[in-house]
């Protein structure tokens, strides 16, 4: 994984490459409660991520109260639907959306806001499941004052394996889970000596899709933990079926340490590699960071933030993995931020 920080560049716009425009999201508020956010299921889109919060402005790419990835279309749309939250006239939904294409590129639409003005009865125009009761795998149920008897069947549930946390000497740590064949993606979110609330993004916010020695591993090599420090973290896995599961409110205190030369994951090749010099282009709105496609590179990870220096391997304001090159380059493209003279990326 390559983390690239570009500081103090004077940039010249040379050309503009093809750009994917995220379709305009549709927001529907229901009566008596609930809402829906959707976009058309463009065939180029592999994943639609929704992040939102009620009556509180999200800053940048904050995780939000709702933080959901959608990989399957319903009636020609990629849909996030909440059935329990009540909006009244004048309330608003602050949100942003992210899409990942089948090419591996990701795009954001930030700083979106929808005020609750019109409402639709929930029995009309809401998406109905086309699965039978024996096929359903995930149900969102609002139950008020009911006594329920389970009479027919219990659906399979995936239990995320217990994470293993290792603290290194003189610095660094590792969090891993076994590489279960059902798991497509392992996401780690963590922070040192500060409790994460719910699904906060955290200082570290990394997706892992490839196993190392039979494990899905996040490893940091720069952060120093001393005895009594603690790691607050949560993890998320996405299965090949498209379902996602969380383990929240996890915490590990630094008590025992392993010398970094022992039991840490080694690179499969002892030969050093020099990362190609990144090329940065600024557009009238947004920017692009890219490196040339070279033999042996399977993933280009970009981490960046605007006008704030990095301290170690932070996730940053932008944190994206690119696995497929376009026109001979691995490219991270951002189209929502307007850069001004003197800004530092």
TrEMBL record:
Stretch forming the signal peptide: 1-18
Highest taxon above the source species: Eukaryota
One GO MF term: carbohydrate binding
Segments forming domain CBM39: 20-121, 158-259, 273-345
Keywords, ordered alphabetically: Signal
Keyword Signal found: yes
Name of the protein: Putative beta-13-glucan-binding protein nasonia vitripennis
Organism, as annotated: Lutzomyia longipalpis (Sand fly)
Phylogenetic lineage: Eukaryota, Metazoa, Ecdysozoa, Arthropoda, Hexapoda
């Amino acid at each position: 994984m390559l983390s690239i920080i570009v500081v103090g560049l004077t940039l010249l716009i040379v050309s503009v490459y093809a750009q994917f425009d995220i379709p305009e999201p549709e927001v529907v508020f229901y009566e008596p409660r609930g809402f829906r956010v959707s976009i058309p299921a463009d065939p180029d889109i592999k994943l639609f991520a929704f992040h939102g919060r009620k009556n509180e402005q999200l800053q940048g790419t904050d995780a939000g109260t709702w933080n959901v990835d959608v990989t399957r279309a319903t009636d020609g749309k990629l849909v996030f639907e909440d059935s329990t939250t009540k909006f009244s006239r004048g309330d608003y939904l602050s949100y942003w959306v992210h899409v990942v294409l089948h090419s591996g590129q990701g795009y954001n639409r930030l700083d979106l806001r929808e005020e609750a003005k019109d409402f639709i009865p929930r029995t009309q125009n809401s998406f109905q499941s086309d699965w039978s009761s024996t096929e359903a795998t995930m149900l969102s149920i609002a139950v008020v004052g009911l006594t329920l008897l389970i009479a027919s069947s219990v659906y399979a549930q995936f239990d995320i394996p217990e994470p293993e946390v290792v603290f290194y000497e003189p610095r660094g740590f590792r969090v891993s889970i076994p590489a279960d064949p059902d798991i497509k993606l392992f996401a780690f979110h963590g922070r040192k000596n500060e409790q994460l609330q719910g699904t906060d993004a955290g200082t570290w916010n990394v997706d892992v899709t490839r196993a190392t020695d039979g494990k899905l591993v996040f490893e940091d090599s720069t952060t120093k933990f001393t005895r009594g420090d603690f790691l607050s973290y949560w993890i998320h896995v996405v299965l090949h079926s498209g379902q996602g599961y969380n383990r929240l409110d996890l915490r590990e205190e630094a008590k025992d340490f392993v010398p970094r030369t022992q039991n840490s994951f080694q690179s499969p090749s002892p030969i050093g590699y020099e990362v190609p010099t990144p090329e940065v282009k600024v557009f009238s709105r947004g920017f692009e960071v890219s490196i040339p496609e070279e033999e042996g590179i399977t993933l280009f990870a970009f981490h960046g933030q605007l006008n704030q220096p990095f301290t170690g391997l932070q996730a940053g304001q932008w944190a994206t993995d690119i696995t497929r090159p376009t026109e001979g380059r691995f490219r991270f493209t951002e189209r929502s931020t307007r850069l001004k003279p003197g800004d530092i990326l």
